Amino acid sequence: MTSSTSLQELYIDWNNCGAEGCSHLADALVLNTSLQLLHLEANDTRDKGITHLAKSLSNNRALTDLDLATDNITAAGAEALGEMLLANSTLRSLSLNGNSIRSEGAAVIAAALERRNTALRTLSLDSTDIDVEFFVAMGKALRSPTCPLVSLSAVLSLLALLAQQYKY
User: Fold this and answer.
1) Per-residue pLDDT reduced to its tens digit, 130-162
2) In CATH, what number does 9-166 get?
3) Extents of the domains making up the chain
4) What string of DSSP letters covers the chain?
C-alpha cells in the first residue's frame, strides 16, 4: 500500500486484525498518498494499535475518513487521536462509536478542535461512555471561531447521562 497510487478506499471491518495488524497498517500509511477512506470497525485494535496509527496519521495528507467504531479504544487511545488532530490537516470524518473513550479522551479531541484543528467536520461518539465533562469541553470548542465541526453525534452517550441523572 505504501507504493499504491490508486487505492482510495479500504474497508477491513470485522477482521480482528488487532493492535499488531493496525500497527502494520499504520506503517504503510506513513508514505501513502492515495488512501482517503479507512474503515477499521470491530478489529480489536485497542489503544496500542490506535496510538501507532495516530502517530502515522499526524503527517498523512490523504486520509479524510476514519472509522474506528467498536475497536476497544479507551481514553488513552482517544488522547493519541486528539494529539494527532493537532497536526493532521486533512481528516474530515472520525467515528469512535462504541468505544469506552470516556470524557477524558473525548475532551482531548474537543481541545484539539478548539485550539488548532480546522479540518474535522464530522465527529461521531455514539455509545462512548462520555459524560457532562465532555459536553462542557465540546461546548467550549464549538464556541471557538476556528472549530470546523458541522456534525457531532453522541447518541446513547447523552441518553445514558440523562438516564443516570433522572435514575431511569
Assistant:
1) 877 888 888 899 898 888 999 999 876 655 555
2) 3.80.10.10
3) 9-166
4) -TT-SS--EEE-TT---HHHHHHHHHHHHTT-SS--EEE-TTS--HHHHHHHHHHHHTS-SS--EEE-TTS--BHHHHHHHHHHHHH-S---EEE-TT-B-HHHHHHHHHHHHHHT-----EEE-TTS---HHHHHHHHHHHHSTT---SEEE-TTHHHHHHHHHHT-
